[in-house]
Design a protein that fits this description.
Layout (H helix, E strand, L loop, with lengths): L1 E2 L8 E4 L2 E11 L7 E8 L5 E7 L3 E2 L4 E12 L2 E6 L5 E4 L15 E7 L4 E6 L3 E9 L12 E6 L4 E5 L7 E5 L5 E4 L3
Antiparallel strand pairs: 1-6, 2-3, 3-4, 4-5, 7-8, 7-10, 8-9, 10-11, 12-13, 12-15, 13-14, 15-16
Length: 188
């Protein structure tokens, strides 16, 4: 049995028969009352975001999850088609469970987070960063580099993100998969 002392970011817990991921947490201590532990929780099996408070030392119910290697094959009307890299078994996952679905390209490595108690996929994540090619971008304005000016660029997956002015069409760029933001240009 886990207690509030075991709380950490990313932990998946069961609360009121729903699964939540801990986004942020902290502790409030006062001179007169017992310490309280609060957490900002994001729904794994629903779209709710809530805050919850426990007394310090209360029991929490973590859910054991596994991160499994998969490969993104293609997207169709039924959802995202993924293949297990070890067993070559294919599964279909709805777009609602996919983090940053606009950054997936055919053959892309990804991770499926699976609830080990029920063997049900809970979400799909990309690696920490992905490299994608820019298919369309307006040319940058010469001399406008003193400010951190950005321009929009279309990626090979169809996603549109903001990039610095010096990035051109055809460049390969690294993107932070958690935020979907430009990180750096990749040398080929």
């Amino acid at each position: 049995m886990a207690t509030t002392a075991d709380m950490r970011t990313g932990l998946i817990i069961k609360l009121d028969n729903n699964l939540y991921s801990v986004v942020d947490f902290g502790q409030n201590k006062t001179a007169r009352a017992a310490a309280k532990v609060w957490a900002k929780l994001k729904g794994v099996d629903n779209t709710r975001t809530i805050e919850h408070t426990w007394n310090s030392g209360d029991n929490i119910f973590p859910v054991r999850v596994e991160k499994r290697n998969y490969q993104f094959l293609y997207k169709d009307d039924s959802g995202f088609n993924l293949m297990d890299n070890s067993s070559f078994e294919q599964i279909v996952i709805g777009e609602a469970l996919v983090e940053h679905p606009e950054l997936y390209k055919d053959g892309q490595e990804c991770f499926v987070i699976v609830n080990t108690e029920t063997e049900v996929p809970m979400s799909v994540e990309l690696p920490a960063s992905v490299n994608l090619r820019i298919t369309y971008s307006e040319p940058g304005v010469k001399g406008d580099t003193a400010t951190r000016a950005m321009k929009s660029a279309t990626l090979e997956t169809g996603a549109i993100i903001n990039v610095p002015l010096f990035v051109n069409e055809g460049d390969l760029i690294k993107i932070d998969a958690k935020t979907g933001n430009y990180v750096e240009r990749v040398k080929e």
